[in-house]
Amino acid sequence: MEDLRLEIDAISKRYGDVVALKEMTFDVRAGELFGFVGSNGAGKTTTMRIALGVLSSDAGEVRWAGEPITVETRRHIGYMPEERGLYPKMKVAEQLTYLARLHGMGTAGAKRSVEEWTERLGVASRREDEVQKLSLGNQQRVQLAAALVHNPRILVLDEPFSGLDPVAVDVMSQVLREKADEGVPVVFSSHQLDLVERLCDRVGIVRNGQMVTLGTVDDLRSGAAVRLIVHAPDAPRGWADRLPGVKVLGHHGEKTELELEPGADDQLVLKAALDTGPVREFAHRLPSLTELFRNVVTEEAA
Amino acid sequence: MSKPETTPSVRLSSASAIRLVASREINTRLRSKAYIISTVVMLFLIVAATLVIKLLSGGNADATVGVTGPTTQLSAPLQASAKAIGQTVETTDVASEADGRAKVADGSIDALLVGDGENLQVVVKKDLDSKLESSLNVLAQQLALNQQIVGLGGDPAQVEAAVAGARVDIQPMEKPFDYNGQQLVLGIIAGILIYMSLLINGQMVAQGVVEEKTSRVVELLLSTIRPWQLMAGKVLGIGTIGLIQMVLIGGVGVASGLATGVLTISLSAALGTVIWLIVWFLLGFLMYSIVFAALGALVSRQEDVGGAITPALMFVIAGYVVGVSVLPSDPGNSFVEVLSIIPVFAPTLMPMRLAMGGVPVWEAVLSVALVAALIPILIWFAGRIYGNAVMRTGAKVKLRDALKSA
Predict the structure, then answer these.
(1) Residue B264 needs a FRET pair 20 to 30 A away by CA distance; which of A66, A123, A171, B361 works?
(2) What is the pLDDT of residues A254-301, one digit of tens each?
(3) Under a CB-based contact definition with an 8 Å cutoff, are residues A76 and A63 in contact?
(4) B184 & B295 share domain
(5) 3-class DSSP state for residue A2?
(6) Is B336 helix (H, G, I), strand (E, B) or coil?
(7) Closest CB to A52 among B9, B218, B223
(8) 3 state SS of B155
């Protein structure tokens, strides 16, 4: 079986003295949902634009199925630019048909696909309306239809969830999952980290134009320091202060949040807690993606 | 899983990409109200203009003169003397002097000749048209001369024959071109049409480019086709629209001119004018619109389009203004002759000169060749500017930056 993965290999781009991307490298496997995360200006959009050929890179290569991507193979990509845009005065169906045909579809196939996707995304009744007459939410749906209408083999979506209502978020998530299940590599950027955590098979965090962390959310967590939540109602404040390798992060009511340095023994913590009285809860707390992200981003500041 | 099954064919040749873009332009614009209305208005104007000219000229005659009784014999000499000074006078027999006076009063004839046929007396409503007066004066002098000849015992007919044959012998050192008044008018109309068309359609190209930039749809388009394909499709699409308009207006104008008899030049000369008009519209449009497309790509807001394309537009306006202000009075002006060969002015000036006639073949060929040679160079420059600038939104992109960055 062919490996239909999308590879971003050591892409660099600079604007004058500003380095936008420095050897950005990652891959999106076939059938995988990949979350692309980073602060504003970290280089997500630039990376996507280069993958789409809208921008040229100074160095590096984008490959699909092992081959360097070309103008022809780029037509297999479904793209949702960060800057949303459609012809405001063109009718929805006409516009989607036009875009599908620009991606190499025949007229009949394009029309059929437009019908399918407008139906699927709930804008079928607006097919004959000009795009500018649609609500912002519906324009977003049409924009997604524009990315899907040519039955793409790769999906690259820049902030697909921004500006969507909760129902549309569910529709979007479902569509992306389905596409991935069909064997399509799906990469999208987002600032909604809870969504990324829930949806994505793998996550990449970018900082200053470089991929700094890459893996499943569990992989990412494994590198992070272990956190403990201890509920010992009778424990006095400062009960854990002198334990070796333990840092007190804070007190939430009767609960104490601790961070263990690598090699610190959590059983010692448990014993110290039991010494103060009953222990009602003793749990490892998994950091959320938001926390992981914050750690990665603040590392840079430090 | 083999590749043909999983991967549909997405081959799109440059030609089909350009055709897709062009047909979108044609479809949207043909349906736009502005286009339909402007075309109908221009067609109406050109037909109305020919009808007005037709009515003003009142048939083919410049004046109609009534004759009655003894003055009936003067109708042939009157027509002859009028013709000698370049007038066409129609004569009409009226039943009686009273009847004739009534016709003068109601304006159906311009003047009535009365009297004994020896001394000219003319009845008019208010005043006599100065040209008709000249014709009648020539006739009066002729009659007086005839009487003198008879008095001297000569034969007026013989004298007339001898006089008629006498003419100055002109020896031109250069063969002059005899400019036809109708062709001069045709030249001016050709100039106006080309000018308006370049102005309207050229701006449409620039606005179209900016529309894609402001609506951000350009990023989506450029993720599937190349910048030059998008630009070429747009220019060709809008060019086709302009061409349809030009052919319609030119064709209807010439047809109505010929049908009403306002235009008396030969059909081939009229067709020649229309064909040259189309050739120069295409050349001029291609040349200017690619420049407009590139300049339009530098800005991001519709309000800035005007400012961005003004430098190029100045050449169109300058050519047109020089043409309409100099050529009607001096069609052979040598300054205009030189300008009309320079590519930037040729699209406005050359079609005017060609419609007026008298353009040496080498000048016509050279001007076409120069513009045709310039177009590929402009395409290269414009493609570069467009490709570099069209993705940059925000402040106006400097021309130098757009040319420099890869």
Answers:
(1) B361
(2) 888 888 887 778 888 888 888 888 889 888 887 888 888 887 777 755
(3) no
(4) yes
(5) coil
(6) helix
(7) B223
(8) coil
